[in-house]
Amino acid sequence: MPSQDPLATHVGKTEDGAAIFAQGSFPPIRIQVPPSAQYTPEQPESKEQLIQGLHTVIQRMREIEPSLEKASKQNTVSHPRFGGLCAEEWFLLIEMHYRHHLLQLERLNKELFRKVM
Questions:
Q1: Which one, of 67, 81, 86, 93, lies nearest residue 5 by Cα?
Q2: Quick one: which of 4, 41, 70, 73 is 20 to 30 A from 115 by CA?
Q3: Dist. CA 72–CA 58, nearest whole Å
Q4: How far apart are CA 12 and CA 18, in angstroms?
Q5: Strand intervals (E) in 7-79
């Protein structure tokens, strides 16, 4: 039965998308996108708000994960750089994204402590 989601397509991954999923992570390079409301979230008002937001993401991922087994791998929604991704791939992309940011944080901490010392 075809998907009722108007965004769902049968489009495949781009070359970048295929490479990233084959590798299981983003390349260890700096990635910049133009500043825009679409890509740049508002800054949190406090550290507590940031922590609560991370806890909310974890809770939602735990709720959604069991439903991925039933999701069709045929229906995809296009990512601007990686092409058509199925629900499971979008889910995996979240973890890859957070891991990439943790590597950025590690790099920034090294630079900061190198300058302080």
A1: 86
A2: 41
A3: 23
A4: 9
A5: 77-79
- Predicted confidence (pLDDT) per residue in 1-40, tens digit: 444 555 556 678 999 999 999 999 998 888 887 888 877 8
Q: How far apart are CA 117 and CA 110, in angstroms?
A: 11
β-pairing, 83-85 vs 77-79, is: antiparallel
Residue 29 dihedral angles phi and psi, to the nearest 5°: -125, 160
- The reported pLDDT for the residue numbered 117 is 65
pLDDT at 75: 87
Rounded distance between C-alpha atoms, residue 30 and residue 56, angstroms: 27
Handedness of CA 91, 45, 47, 114 (dihedral sign): positive
Contact partners, residue 93, CB within 8 Å, separation at least 6 = 79, 82, 85
Q: Which residues contact 79 (CB under 8 A, 6 or more apart)?
A: 17, 85, 90, 93
